[in-house]
Amino acid sequence: MSAVVQLRTSSRTARDLSPQDLVDLARSKAPDDRHRLLMGVIALCESAAPATPLPTALGEIFLTLAAQAEHEIRRQLSERLAHADWAPPALIDMLALDEIDIAAPVIAASPLLKDAALIRVLVETTLEHQIAVARRPNLSGGVVDAILDRADPVTMTALASNRSAEIGEAAMHRLVEHSRRIAGLRAPLARHPRLSESLAQELYQWVGQALRQSIGERFQIDDRLLNAAVREASAKASRIPV
Known about the structure:
Elements: H1 3-9, H2 19-26, H3 31-47, H4 56-68, H5 71-81, H6 89-96, H7 100-109, H8 115-124, H9 127-134, H10 141-150, H11 153-160, H12 169-178, H13 186-190, H14 197-204, H15 209-219, H16 223-239
């Protein structure tokens, strides 16, 4: 009798399975074994000490599972590992590139998903993945710049709504410039805590009346003075020889 068959007929619970038992289950294609494998992995996840490196055998289990398991198992693993700081980074990277309902939990929360992996998600996956990256809490300046370099309107609008992203003055200026042609950026930028007075004056020139009122109240922008400055700048520009 094979090891996998012995495991299937055993009365042991998922918490009683050894790492080698789980490796054997990972190599089986039987649905029952896949279910037992998931339960065993989850049990090990729940019992693992924080910040304790996983044994090599357990890392192999996770990677084998992610590569071979059906959709529902991968989705549950992603949810379980979204906040774990001890999971194999290669598995987290793999899950982030999976279908969006699998990838979303780790993109949103995994502390193991580094900038290089997030930028790879931006380059290689769907618009839904890119939006999830743009909404990730505490997004770094490097990933913010990568989003702006791609200049996708929907993704940049999601970024503009992300209050915890590391959006510096230069990145805010790029967003305001994009808002000339992308109307969806204007409302989140007008309310963004990192909008400076100088950028507010720039944004003020092409937003609607409701947002003008909101910006004007926040920065005390004098509409008459601003319009006069715009007219003066336009007049000077028209006198510059071509």
